[in-house]
């Protein structure tokens, strides 16, 4: 029972990070029908931007205010990065075959990894402790306060995004563009600006996930470490399982993957963990090709 | 000066030459209809006017200025709305959201009251306001498409086959609404395959054939001409 609770809590903690990342994949896919391979690099940059700022300004004492400011700063910087990626790399290819865009995305990803190494070095970095660490016990399981804060932050951001997409005028425009660019234009929606905005929002969420990784684990892997890509890959799987293009689907998929990973790793085998996650993907796609909450059939990628 | 003046308009889809030097004009306050058989280029003409496709030659002057090369969203802002072929309803959005999107470009504070007015004119849309638009029947979707275009408060409304696939009774209703909208001061360019109906509401008409204007004249003139009667009204 204690074990179960432990896996459950850990699963929610990791799952909420996948969910944050999955949102970026799903929004971009929904609107442009391609996988933004550079998304996991924006996530990595979120962690490094905040680390760089913290070390520059010697922000080593735990403080909620500092942590929040760093989170917002990283989100803003990554939003700008996402804006530039779309403007410089993807927008010129708006009418090009999707394969070209996909290859460009891989190129952007490599570019960001290598520039990341150039700017931030090739070593893992210890992440400053931005929040005071308390541990308390829930049903015999030790819970760290920073993990709780990370989950709450992730959930708050998801609620904010959900509100943005489903309750605001720009959100309505985003959904319209993801259904039909041309008809959205007829409504007076500036389609290109809405696409930019989607990258900005998705990238800001990825940055938040990066900061939360640093805060939770106290260490960040070097910019080109494969773990960033693996995170991104699983988040993408989460988006597909939830139904690519669906915002609630990405959140659900993220949590599912996080939980599945912990339970499989805990009860079955850590080695098989990732294999089983991808097997889960295949099963979901066989049973419900559009994903759990997806409406449209998935196009060939 | 006419509200809309199109001169020698050419449109290509890749290698397909869909419009050949199409010229037409629409005066303020008119209902003008564009008739012609499948593939004649009727929808293409409307698409070129609203910026959905780019023209490869010719001029489009609307309200005294050239709108060639403008994006769709810029054109709507000038008061030219387009209810496209196939209706273009956002099926996963609610009926109300679809209507609100129709007013996306407007900055005046009268969107709410216009929405109420639209609900009065189309009571069925009010009943279905919170429903996904994709669940509406064909006729209801067509009304939504017209109502949504009207939410932009257009001066000129482009309507592409509002009667397509609808029962005769619903078609009558939609045409009555078209006439009513026109009486309220909206100029209308109407594309129809149902030439009979189109000529009955329109002031003037153009006949398109394989991308070219073949005939033009007042609706009554064309309705009386042998050629139109044979080819489009199924008479003789
Ligand atoms: N997206 C497109 N790509 C290539 N060719 C197209 C495209 N849309 C239309 N065409 C071609 O352009 C020509 C004119 O088509 P258009 O849709 O304007 O005809 P239409 O008069 O509206 O016909 P209908 O009454 O069937 O709607 C046709 O030959 C059609 O095949
Ligand atoms: Mg047509």
Elements of chain B, N to C (H/E):
EEEHEEHEHHHHEHEHEEHH
Largest interface: A-B, 18 and 25 residues
Largest sheet of chain B: 6 strands, mixed
Percentage of residues in DSSP E strands of chain B: 25-35%
Shape of chain A: globular
- Spans of at least 5 consecutive residues with low confidence of chain A: 297-301
In total, the number of strands of chain B is: 10
Name every ligand kind in the structure: adenosine-5'-triphosphate, magnesium ion
Helix/strand-derived class of chain B?
alpha/beta
Give the overall form of chain B: globular
Q: Helix/strand/pairing class of chain A, anyone?
A: mainly alpha
Approximately how much helix is present in the residues of chain B? 25-40%
Helix run count of chain A: 11
The averaged pLDDT of chain B comes out at 94
Biggest β-sheet of chain A: count, sense, barrel? 2 strands, antiparallel
Report strand % of chain A. under 5%
**Briefly, what CATH class of chain B?**
Alpha Beta
Indicate how many domains the architecture of chain B comprises.
1
């Amino acid at each position: 029972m204690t074990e179960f609770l432990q896996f459950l809590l850990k699963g929610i903690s990791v799952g909420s990070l996948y969910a944050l990342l999955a949102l970026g994949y799903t929004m971009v896919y929904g609107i442009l029908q391609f996988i933004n391979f550079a998304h996991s690099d924006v996530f990595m940059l979120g962690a490094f931007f905040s680390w760089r700022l913290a070390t520059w300004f010697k922000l080593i004492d735990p403080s909620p205010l500092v942590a929040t400011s760093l989170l917002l700063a990283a989100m803003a910087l990554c939003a700008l990065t996402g804006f530039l990626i779309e403007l410089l790399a993807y927008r010129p290819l708006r009418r090009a075959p999707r394969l070209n865009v996909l290859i460009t995305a891989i190129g952007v990803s490599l570019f960001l990894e290598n520039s990341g190494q150039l700017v931030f070095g090739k070593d893992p970095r210890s992440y400053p402790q931005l929040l005071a660490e308390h541990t308390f016990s829930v049903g015999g399981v030790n819970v760290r306060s920073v993990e709780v804060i990370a989950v709450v932050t992730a959930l708050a951001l998801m609620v904010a995004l959900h509100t943005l997409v489903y309750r605001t005028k720009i959100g309505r425009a985003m959904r319209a563009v993801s259904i039909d660019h041309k008809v959205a234009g007829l409504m007076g929606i500036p389609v290109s600006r809405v696409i930019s905005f989607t990258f900005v929002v998705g990238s800001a969420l990825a940055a938040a996930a990066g900061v939360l990784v640093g805060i939770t684990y106290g260490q960040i892997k070097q910019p080109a470490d494969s773990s960033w890509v693996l995170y991104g890959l699983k988040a993408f799987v989460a988006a597909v399982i939830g139904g690519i293009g669906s915002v609630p689907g990405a959140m659900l998929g993220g949590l599912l993957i996080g939980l599945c990973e912990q339970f499989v790793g805990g009860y079955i085998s850590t080695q098989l963990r990732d294999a089983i996650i991808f097997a889960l993907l295949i099963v979901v796609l066989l049973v419900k090709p559009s994903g759990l909450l997806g409406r449209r059939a998935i196009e060939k990628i | 000066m006419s509200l809309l003046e199109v001169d020698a308009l050419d449109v290509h889809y890749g290698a397909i030459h869909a419009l050949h030097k199409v010229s037409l004009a629409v005066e303020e306050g008119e209902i003008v209809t564009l008739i012609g058989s499948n593939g004649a280029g009727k929808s293409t003409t409307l698409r070129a006017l609203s910026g959905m496709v780019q023209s490869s030659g010719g001029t489009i002057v609307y309200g005294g200025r050239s709108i060639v090369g403008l994006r769709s969203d810029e054109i709507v802002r000038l008061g030219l709305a387009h209810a496209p072929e196939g209706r273009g309803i956002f099926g996963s959005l609610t009926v109300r959201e679809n209507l609100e999107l129709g007013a996306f470009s407007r900055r005046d504070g009268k969107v709410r009251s216009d929405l109420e007015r639209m609900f009065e004119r189309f009571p069925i849309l009010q009943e279905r306001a919170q429903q996904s638009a994709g669940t509406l029947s064909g006729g209801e979707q067509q009304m939504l498409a017209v109502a949504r275009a009207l939410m932009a408060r257009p001066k000129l409304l482009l309507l592409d086959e509002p009667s397509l696939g609808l029962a005769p009774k619903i078609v009558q209703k939609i045409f009555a609404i078209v006439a009513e909208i026109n009486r309220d001061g909206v100029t209308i360019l109407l594309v129809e395959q149902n030439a009979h109906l189109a000529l009955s509401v329109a002031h003037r008409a153009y006949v398109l054939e394989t991308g070219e204007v073949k005939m033009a004249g007042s609706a009554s003139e064309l309705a009386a001409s042998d050629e139109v009667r044979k080819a489009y009204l199924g008479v003789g």
